[in-house]
UniProtKB/TrEMBL annotation:
<dbReference type="GO" id="GO:0005524">
    <property type="term" value="F:ATP binding"/>
</dbReference>
<dbReference type="GO" id="GO:0005886">
    <property type="term" value="C:plasma membrane"/>
</dbReference>
<keyword id="KW-0547">Nucleotide-binding</keyword>
<keyword id="KW-0067">ATP-binding</keyword>
<keyword id="KW-1003">Cell membrane</keyword>
<dbReference type="InterPro" id="IPR051120">
    <property type="entry name" value="ABC_AA/LPS_Transport"/>
</dbReference>
<keyword id="KW-0472">Membrane</keyword>
<protein>
    <submittedName>
        <fullName>ABC transporter ATP-binding protein</fullName>
    </submittedName>
</protein>
<dbReference type="InterPro" id="IPR027417">
    <property type="entry name" value="P-loop_NTPase"/>
</dbReference>
<keyword id="KW-0813">Transport</keyword>
<feature type="domain" description="ABC transporter">
    <location>
        <begin position="10"/>
        <end position="258"/>
    </location>
</feature>
<dbReference type="Pfam" id="PF12399">
    <property type="entry name" value="BCA_ABC_TP_C"/>
</dbReference>
<dbReference type="Pfam" id="PF00005">
    <property type="entry name" value="ABC_tran"/>
</dbReference>
<dbReference type="GO" id="GO:0016887">
    <property type="term" value="F:ATP hydrolysis activity"/>
</dbReference>
<dbReference type="InterPro" id="IPR003439">
    <property type="entry name" value="ABC_transporter-like_ATP-bd"/>
</dbReference>
<dbReference type="InterPro" id="IPR003593">
    <property type="entry name" value="AAA+_ATPase"/>
</dbReference>
<dbReference type="InterPro" id="IPR032823">
    <property type="entry name" value="BCA_ABC_TP_C"/>
</dbReference>
Amino acid sequence: MSRKIGDVILDLQNISLRFGGVNALTDISFDVREHEVRAIIGPNGAGKSSMLNVINGVYHPQDGKIMYRGKERKKMEPHMAASTGIARTFQNIALFKGMSVLDNIMTGRNLKIKSNLLLQALWLGPAQKEEIEHRKKVEEIIDFLEIQHIRKTPVGRLPYGLQKRVDLGRALAMEPQILLLDEPMAGMNVEEKQDMCRFILDVNDQFGTTIVLIEHDMGVVMDISDRVVVLDYGKKIGDGVPDEVRASPEVIKAYLGAGH
Ligand SMILES: Nc1ncnc2c1ncn2[C@@H]1O[C@H](COP(=O)(O)OP(=O)(O)OP(=O)(O)O)[C@@H](O)[C@H]1O
């Protein structure tokens, strides 16, 4: 592999998360290295989405520490995660269905818009310059994702696979350091999955973005991930490179037990 994996960028230490009597996550520790593709896998209800929501600042764990770029991260809201360089896509696509592809991707730039609303409304000076720069970035993403032909199409009219690609574009518009992908291949046919895999690896390679993903398709996970962490009933039962995880008796047992 030609890519260079860097230092630890995100370090989750002894994370526990409870919802009333449900232990969604129990004492989970793992790290994510810069420029890595890191997968979180596990049977249904294992705690994968909860883990992503902890990273994203949606859920606040009762115990544990989150170190981000070497500093302990305090309690924060999701929009703060985005402004510190963490973006995400969602299992159930969260796009504006009536808006065009271009406008949806543009919404990802909102965090970066600096000039005030009055200037923007009047389309004056710095606002105009800024708008042009944002458009340029969005056009680059559209080219990168090979969706020029649908740039003006309302998202709701697109097939599911393309909607997922637009959702990825919206997240990329934030220029994240860490991109969280929640089941990016769910509901896709084989061809759409191959396209999505290629785009994920290209994002990782060309933009240097660190990727953390949840995915149920084992073939895909083992193909594109550098390291895989395995959860089961909220506990960590495996962590390592794909070959290690695939060979782990505990992981095999969890998956067989879950009927996967
Ligand atoms: N907001 C919530 N309130 C109460 N319980 C929750 C909440 N979110 C998750 N849980 C519970 O936490 C546990 C882990 O759920 P989570 O969605 O993180 O698992 P998952 O591995 O992502 O599952 P799936 O693969 O089915 O999406 C489950 O028992 C779930 O019911």
